[in-house]
Design brief:
186 residues; globular; mainly alpha; 67% helix; 6 helices; 0% strand
Length: 186
């Protein structure tokens, strides 16, 4: 796959941001630093970092599709890594384990998008992305009695996790990445 310095730079910046945030989070969890992840500025930092990763995953999916790679298989592997994170966090921090985090999201987004998104024009993908993002607003207010719809974006009341990025609205960010790839890297 051809390398694009701007994509690599953005990936590197996202990784650096994630490492810094998680380092501070871990130090605070261990009582070694005063860092409040729930503070609005820190919450915005976490959301912006996640958005970069998800957007770049969509963009990278478009770039990888030109290589004829088995994208669904790649998505399944990433999703399985997410399940390993689920198991590890359930063991170490059961009260806030990762039920559907960024790896689950990226893996499932690749699988779902591989079924249709690469065949759609960028404008249609952007419109679909906007609709999915908008759907996230009312869906986040739904709090079902059970956790079955957690992956979709409707967690039960009192749900807490150290990493939670449900399909709605985050799949919209992923689709924006594909649409951007189709527009700037045809």
């Amino acid at each position: 796959m051809a390398r694009f310095w701007e994509v690599d730079f953005a990936r590197g910046a996202a990784v650096a941001s994630m490492v810094a945030f998680n380092w501070l989070y871990a130090l605070a969890y261990l009582g070694a630093a005063a860092f409040d992840a729930a503070q609005p500025a820190n919450r915005l930092w976490a959301i912006a970092t996640a958005a970069c990763f998800v957007f770049l995953a969509g963009l990278s999916m478009h770039l990888a599709s030109a290589q004829g790679k088995n994208l669904a298989s790649r998505g399944a592997k990433i999703f399985l890594l997410g399940l390993l994170i689920t198991a590890a966090t359930f063991y170490f921090i059961p009260s806030m384990f990762v039920a559907f985090g960024i790896l689950h999201l990226i893996g499932s987004s690749i699988i779902i998008a591989s079924l249709f998104a690469l065949r759609l024009p960028a404008a249609v993908l952007a419109a679909l992305a906007c609709a999915i993002l908008a759907l996230g607003i009312p869906l986040s207010a739904v709090q079902p009695a059970n956790p079955f719809f957690l992956w979709l974006g409707a967690p039960p009341a009192g749900f807490q996790s150290v990493d939670y990025e449900p399909l709605i609205p985050w799949f919209g960010v992923f689709l924006f990445g594909i649409a951007t790839g189709k527009t700037f890297y045809p």
